[in-house]
Amino acid sequence: MARFYPCKTISPGNAQGEAVISSEEILFYFTDPATGRITEHGHCLEGQSIAGKILVFPGGKGSSVVQADGLYKLEQSGMQPAGLIVQNLDTVLVSAAVIMEIPMVCEVPDSLCLALENGMTVKINTDENTIELPD
């Protein structure tokens, strides 16, 4: 039986994918558009692909131009994340997710953070404001 957690919808849509959890903010400019891999030296996800994944992270960083451009390049090559679970919102990240139609949610309970593991299949359902994890 699946476990469901409440969330707040920021950018509508439904998504499913493997969880990739970052303890650090992400600057999408430091991703490889051809592979979706994080290229920022020293980042906790350096070398890992976020393409088609449910990205769980504190928030974005960097100036508005490079942040939006990085996510746009990922989207243009089909290497964008399937969905975003974010702790701290910023206007650039929200705008980019809405424009690029990437489902984004926030305000998740601590119990979700404790239950969530890298590689776990995650479903975001913004129609019902839920995040589903397998049991």
UniProtKB/TrEMBL annotation:
<dbReference type="InterPro" id="IPR002840">
    <property type="entry name" value="PMDh-S-like_dom"/>
</dbReference>
<dbReference type="InterPro" id="IPR012016">
    <property type="entry name" value="PMDh-S-like"/>
</dbReference>
<dbReference type="GO" id="GO:0016829">
    <property type="term" value="F:lyase activity"/>
</dbReference>
<dbReference type="Pfam" id="PF01989">
    <property type="entry name" value="AcnX_swivel_put"/>
</dbReference>
<keyword id="KW-0456">Lyase</keyword>
<feature type="domain" description="Phosphomevalonate dehydratase small subunit-like">
    <location>
        <begin position="31"/>
        <end position="105"/>
    </location>
</feature>
<protein>
    <recommendedName>
        <fullName>Phosphomevalonate dehydratase small subunit-like domain-containing protein</fullName>
    </recommendedName>
</protein>
